[in-house]
Amino acid sequence: MSSEEIFATAIEYEKKIHKFYLDAMDIIDDVKGQSFFKELAEDELSHVTFLEYSLEQLKTNKEIDLDKLKSSLPSQEIVKNQIEKMKGEIPERMLGDFKRILRSALMLEIKTSEFYKDAYEKSEGQIKAILKKFYEIEKNHENLVQVELDLAINNGYWLNYMEIDMED
Question: Mean pLDDT over residues 91-111, rounded?
Fold first, then answer.
């Protein structure tokens, strides 16, 4: 797959997940849930913008400025530091739609991460660096969605680890 084909495919992934998050905002009536999906939608839209810019740069044989690729979402470390406070603010019973949407979002984020990982492993040079950064951003999205899902279902897991295991 050429770099242009990779970016065109990536745009499709990003547009799909952006639309998913916009639709989720309309389904969820919880303000915190809407805010979470809005932040994800905005971040995904910034990915579409960067990929479209990158595709144009490729077509005209110009250098792609990797510094233009940013994520507005907090890192996993920031989420870890805020998790205890968040637990106290989450209602005892979350809406079924919120959990269902988070599960779907997690599947989409995993699929997108896998796409970037595969493309990254098959690329070279600047394109490889761009795809690596996208992979890292999407893995962070995965982790953020997983944290929200773990909190929503309150199953004793956090980032796929039993909470009691984390206390050791």
Answer: 79
